[in-house]
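Researcher: Here's a chain I'd like modeled. Treat it as a single chain, no partners, no ligands.
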Amino acid sequence: MNLLVKNTTEINGKVTPPASKSQSIRAIILASLCEGKSVLHNVLHSDDIQDAIRVCQSLGATITQSGNTLTIYNTGLPLDISSNTIESGNSGITTHFVMPLLGLRKNPDTAITLNCNEQMRARPIKSLADSLENLGLAFDYLNNPGTLPVRISGELRGGKSSVNGVTSQYLSALLVALPCAKQDSEITVNNLQERSYADMTLDWLKEQHIQFDHQINGETDTFQIRGGQCYRPFETTIAADFSSASYLIAAATLFSGEVIINDINMSDRQGDKELVYILQKMGADIAIHPTHLHIRGGKKLSGIKIDAIDIPDLLPTLAVIGTFASGKTEICNVAHARIKETDRIHSMTDGLTRMGAKIIEQTDGLIIYESHLQGTHVKGYGDHRTVMALSLAGMLAAGTTTIDDCEAIKKTFPNFVTLMQSIGACMEVKK
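Model: Modeled as a single isolated chain. Structure tokens:
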């Protein structure tokens, strides 16, 4: 399907972003490790969430849904997994988190195949797998070494290991699983990126009273994790998703009008809230309130240099903002954006160049100059964030922009088009 976007001059209204994908999946997985019943309110509805639910059901959890509330029950550890194959779909968080959890099951010597869709198969897992081999698991790659699908066997014993910091998901996966291992563990990470997401995981561990120690020495993080611990059933409400809200915030900033973005909690650990402060620095009129943002759009922005090491998901949106800002906008230190659902540095360079933008692709980021965009046909690359960011560019561009693969937005933000239309965006889905 294609997303057709026409030039938009003004947007107004009130809008509420969807719930956090990252928080929703962490809550679902932790609840599935508990002995007893947990209740999760305001859970996101998206393809990634359905992947997480399906995987946790494979881990033995009983999950029922009523509206936006999930009730999750399990019998605790060891996990009772009856299937020989687990399908994790296209969810990177779910895929990485389940890998060590397979070492916490009954009959760990019997191999289980972990499979996923084609897009996820292109993403590397070797660093996490190598780390887990030091902690008791064994991996038999069924396709290409270091990628899925893979057969996993062995018990997660704990011990000493290290993991690459290129994505925080590797570390978070270990942090969630290792408290349940029999032995104490020590994990070292060099040059940890996306730190805010690791901090999010640590907040969950603190909430669960999990005992660990964390030390930072230069570019090295070291974690001491006590083994033999367990998670306790809980009830929680999931906060709004700042990654999804970023498109609403950007749109409200780029176009004339006034927009209220509700259910915004700037104290939440999500790193992508940084977009608010970046835009304020560039000249945006954004008032921060305890429960919402009030944005008066259309103000002239000025280009700045942005270190995006902890906010790779914002790169596509920041690239579009850069075409609107005067002078030069430089996004740097975000090479890990190349190993997401697609190479986002390349996908945004390609799309914005087709639209007439002055943009230079760097190894670790982008340089963007103020540009006059022209509507045309651009590729979505099957990537939800590329599609949504390019829709913002289409709203800025003269004429009509057609973006393919727009069904990808269902991964995290199924009602994106409807919400954007509600505040005045000129866009629609066409088969």
